[in-house]
Amino acid sequence: MSGRRRIFIDEGPGETRAVVTLDGQPEHLIIEREGEPDRPRLGETWRGRVGAAAPGFRGYFVDLGAGPAALMAATAGGRPTQGAAITVEVTAEARADKGPLVKALGPAEGPPGRVTRAATLEARLREIAPDAPISYDAPARDAADIAEEMALADVHMMPGGLSLAIERTRGLVAVDVDFASSEAGKRAIQEANRRAVREAARLIRLKGWGGPVVIDLIGKAPDHAEILAQAKLAFAADQPGVVMAGVSRLGMLELALPWRRTPVAERLLDPRGEPTARTVAQRLCRALAEEGRNDPGGQFVARCAPEVAAELEPLVRELGPRFSLMAEVGRARGDTDIRLR
Predict the structure, then answer these.
(1) In whole angstroms, what is the distance from residue 210 CA to residue 207 CA?
(2) Of 132, 140, 186, 191, which sits 20 to 30 A from 270 (CA to CA)?
(3) Cβ of 160: how many Cβ atoms within 10 Å?
């Protein structure tokens, strides 16, 4: 599988975006930003302080000293003492209104805080694609832009008339498959369903989603055994923790995926679904840098809302003296432009 993958790394002021593609399409998008609040990351170990029981979760809250309280599942035969210091491993990062998930490793001494850091970006990329070639500069910027757009989109059009609408509700991920083809015979529908399962796996992975997944396949009676076999292959990269429930009589493929990392949308968008001021600033910084590359002698000023300017100011300093910014009261967050000075 790694021979079908490529890695793209786009490095710029304040942000590094890494993309892993599968057969030319983005499969993973990793965003690292400077200056963000400290947060527990997948695979890290932390010292925590056991808090109150969480009966609905069948576990306990754990104060890690950063971000919201973590949730730790109860283990058979063990009931931690409230207030006790404990070492835990982060098994899922925080998302929306939920804190991270952790598992107990043993007793600890000292105040809550990080013990070991997460794997480096390079290590994460090599874990996904050990032998993949790496591209930088313009190809990487293009790949990262495409990956961001795809990670935030709801509807995905595929060649040959196949389309997937992928939405995350409060309780599950719903995938609606549509197939508009003049050759929609049984064989064509079977192949479209196989493609839909593969693409759904890639896109859900790209978005960073987990939890219950329902894929509404084409037709009411798809070949259940064939679809389930395809699903096991398509979601193999998400193991361990994938649960296949099978294909229902209504033609729905049902499965559950483990939550691991904070979804891409929650890194880039606010709770209303709009790009955050930091996201707008990073995009404007990239646009400024592109203008500078196209006109090496030009001097440019970015005009934006004050909240965006506050995030953009250190990034512009890093770009150099040819670039400046102007905060304009009354501008909407997403309303930006670049002009020659």
Answers:
(1) 9
(2) 140
(3) 12
d(CA 69, CA 49): 10
User: Hey, what are 127's tokens?
Assistant: 């874990």
Q: What is the phi/psi pair of residue 241, to 5°?
A: 110, -5
The residues, ordered by sequence, that sit 6+ positions from 72 with a Cβ below 8 Å of its Cβ are: 48, 50, 59, 60, 61, 62, 80, 86, 88, 101, 102, 103, 104
The residues, ordered by sequence, that sit 6+ positions from 91 with a Cβ below 8 Å of its Cβ are 42, 100, 101, 102, 103, 260
| HEC assignment per residue over 92-154 | ECCECCECCEEEEEEECCCCCEEEECCCCHHHHHHHHCCCCCEECHHHHHHHHHHHHHHHHCC
Which residue from 112, 133, 124 is spatially nearest to 50, judged by alpha carbons?
112
Q: What is the pLDDT along the chain (341 residues), one digit of tens a residue?
A: 556 999 999 999 999 999 999 999 999 999 999 998 889 999 999 999 999 988 778 899 999 999 899 999 887 666 788 999 999 999 999 998 889 999 999 999 999 999 999 999 999 999 999 999 999 999 999 999 999 999 999 999 998 889 999 999 988 999 999 988 656 677 888 889 999 999 999 999 999 999 999 999 987 666 788 899 999 999 999 999 999 999 998 889 999 999 999 999 999 999 999 999 999 999 999 999 999 999 999 999 999 999 999 999 999 999 999 999 999 999 999 999 999 98
Domain extents in the chain: 1-41+120-150, 45-116, 153-257, 275-340
Confirm if 243 and 235 have CB atoms less than 8 A apart.
no
Other CB atoms within 10 Å distance of the CB of residue 123: 11
**CATH code for the domain defined by 153-257:** 3.40.630
Q: What is the CATH number of domain 45-116?
A: 2.40.50
For residues 82 and 52, the answer to whether their CB atoms sit within 8 Å is yes
User: Alpha-carbon distance 290 to 84, whole Å?
Assistant: 53
In this prediction the pTM is 0.92
